Model the fold of this input.
Amino acid sequence: MIRAARLLPWPVMLCMLFLGITAGYPLLLLFLQSLFPELLGGSLDGFLSAYRAIGDTPEIGTLLWNSLSWAGAVTLASWVFGIPCGYLLARTHMAGKGWARLSLLMPIMTPPYIAALSYILVMQDGGFADSLLGTMPEALRAAFFSFWGVTLVMALSSFGYVALAVEATLSGLPRRLEDAALQLGASRTRVAVRIMLPLLLPAVINSGLLVFLESLSNFGVPAVLGTRANLPLLPAEIFYLVTSWPVDLALATSLSSLLCLFALAALYGGRWIAALFSAGGSRPGQHPLRPLARQGQWLAWGWFGGLFLLSTGLPYAAMLLTSIADRWQDGLPSLTLSHYGNLLAPGSRGLSALLTSLWLSIAAASVCVAVGGYIAYVSARSEGRARQVMDGLAMLPRVIPKIVMAVALILAWNAPWIPVNVYNTVWMLLLAYVAIYITDALNYANAQLAGIGSNLERAAALMGASRWTIFVRIVLPQLKPALLAAWLTTFIVCMRELVASILLLPPGVDTSATFIFNQFEQGDIGLAMAMATLTIMLSMAVMAVVQRRRHH
Done:
């Protein structure tokens, strides 16, 4: 293959410039600002003073320990919930597997902060549990508003990643080693511990790493539930340093850099450990699935049903009931649609927030897919240092915690040398969404391109076709399924995006996520839950339309 700099000179430079502006420049400025707190003022004074402030602040050690231990506890709980689900789907004749997989996708689609808000409505003093079931035991309430309650809510939103990864890996593992061990008299427990678990470790570690990084950087659950459980966590502290008066930008940037360091260490450490146990590729086994007796079927569906009830059924019921409840009397609500009427009234703040989220999500998903698909193509057809640089820049937004990226974007686009006034406008939100979520489109396109040969492209080039014509007429049709999936994923995550939206929100503008967060904090819970219900329903409707077009 010809070297990238010769094969694709201007596309490589253009892609590297785009990734450098959206991801590289903000993160570099964040790191420099953490070293030189007066950098934006044109001075290099105060070198490392922000990091010394971390050492001089006793509470920072508690924040770091809380954040790391909480992310680790969420990962362990997700393994406990998710690994049995993956095994049941991959290796047993469990009835209704399609519905079981859907039960795993629902909590993944639900924003964790909405699940946390819903659980607060259920478990708080005078909440649904008290109204419908009588007075809740105070010990149970105290257990929920604690470290383990916050852990449970986040794990219920994350275990689906583990389950789907375990299912995919088990479906692709050959079963001859298990069969041989069983024929030699080994018990199923011994086979599971000595054979299946080592082969599963890469998938378990990688999916756990995803959950760990998501938990470490999550802002919504710590801000909503962590404060009520007296559990201070690092993302919420960074948010309050940036948004509360007096603003301590120096400490916020140093803590962001520290959080970034922990995320990178977890990423590369986890990948190294997973590589040690990697068994390479394998073909799916052809042996029949393990049959489940009636009792086994009941136990399997009891496991899935219990997790679905806790992760989706209970939060959704609380969310929907709150959105249509007017007031409570004798343990029962009087129902009303006034919250939806107020929300969708022409010119209302709620309708404006919903429409803003809708067009921002559509625009961000479209830009991410268009640009991300092209960058993935250029990277896949390049080699050498240029490809390494592009891959490194493209991976940054996926690895870096979202609150760190948001702080970095504030610094980058509010700097005195920026000639274009983007900060404090709605376009800043669009830029942030693209910068943070373009990696999803890149990952989908890269996975598809790995199985696409370049013979047709070479033939077209020999016939005189331009690079752009080759991409549009040959590569793009082959990428269409992956790009549709990438568009849908990006749309959904942008509709639910909270931390970047709330940090970068221009005056007088709301998104659906910030509207939900602010209304709940201000006590208008019915309106907040009505917006949450509409946001989720809208995301599901768009998903259904895209999936239908995809299959046609």
